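Quick log. Single chain, no ligands specified.
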Amino acid sequence: MRLDLAGLKRLCILLCYLLLNSFFSKAQTLTLYSFPSPHPYKWNSPHSLLVSTLHNYYSKSDCQPRRILGHMVIEIRNDTNIFLTGMASDDMAGMKNSLLKEKIGLGVLFKLVKGHLEETRQVQTEVKMRTELFKAAFVSFKISDSAYNYLLAFVDSFKLKGYDSLYNGLNLPRKGKGSGCTAFGMSFLELINALLPEYRDKWAVQINVPEKLIGNELLKKKVRIGKLFFSFRWAKKDEPGRKLLLYEPCLIYNWVNEIWETRQQDNKYGLVQIGKAKGLVVDCRQNSLALPMFTR
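-> predicted structure:
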């Protein structure tokens, strides 16, 4: 059979389309879904943080479960399988008890409590609902075969070590010193060498918490809630304090939507949307896997 020039061009286009379609349909991805809190947390001072915390705690939400701190869900997917998880506290009411009964003040930011890893069936419906009907944003990272297997092995090892029961604390999941939902998500980016300095600058809150506002129940050091209410600044460099770096779901949500609004497309980010949720795509298939799963 002989093809004219036009027919040959059409055949080439068809082959290219089939190759590209096959390539992308089999691409593995790591996706971080960020669900912002009902109202933004204000980190300007202990006073503003307390007020915004109370605002979120007593707010109503049509979306269940309530995520008064916001939340992050991790998705690891290939062409045939999807795995979803997220780090969660066993008892969110414990925060209220820590402030009012134990009176540990901003020690609540560092308190290690019991937690668990959510399973795919627990969060799959929530992801669908939040992306289609409520506020959500996401960043999807294209990853290699080896990265895909490495991240799934990390989750299994994380559970095997019992780290999945340690929520909050120092938010160092790979050291076994507690993990919130976003710290757990960042550990995946660390393992595939995808945690860019830009993410720390745009996604994280970095403050110096005054030592005088950090209570400790075991040491019988109490900080009443009124003391927090009348504290209007964080500790200065030369004052006793404890540094806190916390990745904030609301900041991630705002960052993704800001890039969408300004259409800042370059070689790093592609734009994609699921329902009402806007997202970004980052190609990390060439990243090396030099980092160990766990560190001391």
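Residues 143 and 194 are 10 Å apart (CA to CA).
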